[in-house]
Every structure is written in structure tokens, then in C-alpha cells.
Amino acid sequence: QVQLVESGGGLVQAGGSLRLSCAASGRTFSSYAVGWFRQAPGKEREFVASITWSGGSTYYADSVKGRFTISRDNAKNTVYLQMNSLKPEDTAVYYCAADPDYSGTYPVMYDYWGQGTQVTVSS
What we know:
The protein has strands at residues 2-7, 10-13, 18-26, 33-39, 46-51, 58-60, 68-73, 78-83, 92-99, 112-113, 117-122.
């Protein structure tokens, strides 16, 4: 069992930056893969980035590659999403998700989810 809480969202101008955090509690989190997803009103939830706790491999959606960076601090049971060069189309609720053995792009494969944090990018 893992509980996830996202934070760090807010309002930012286009071209600006935000850093999202996903804090975990419950079971030991260090062995879980973590993904970031986002969902805008009227749209499907989409993959943003993921990271494997064992090995430290990272994966990114093409739409955010080169702008977003996912990282982790296992001592703090926290995963981060650094978002730079933000665009209005990045506006969405951002969710973190965890799974013991999946770090891919499909939301349905992740077992645990946070409540989301709103990111709004103004033009």
C-alpha cells in the first residue's frame, strides 16, 4: 500500500518553470516505479514522464522531452517533476502514480495514484 500526495502546482506565465513533488507514505516506496500523468478538461489522461526506482531509468512523452525532467530522492520518498519552458498547452491537473513493476505509458497499469495538483500556464 502506497499513498501519494502531489504538490507544487500553480499559475505561471508561458516560458516559466514549476517543480512538482510527489510524496509517498505507507509501504516502502523506493522499489516502486513512478509516473507523472496529466489531464486537461475534456481530454484523456496522458503520460508525461516516468522513472524506475531500480536503475534510475527515465522516460518522457515526446511533447515534454527536453523541457521536463523527472527525478527522485528515495531518502525523502519523493519524486519530482521539473517543468521548464512551460506552454499554455501544458495546463492540466498533474498526477503521480506508482507501481511495483511498471513504468510505461498506460495509466491503467499503475496501482496507486495521488489526488493531483493543478498547473495553469497563462499566455
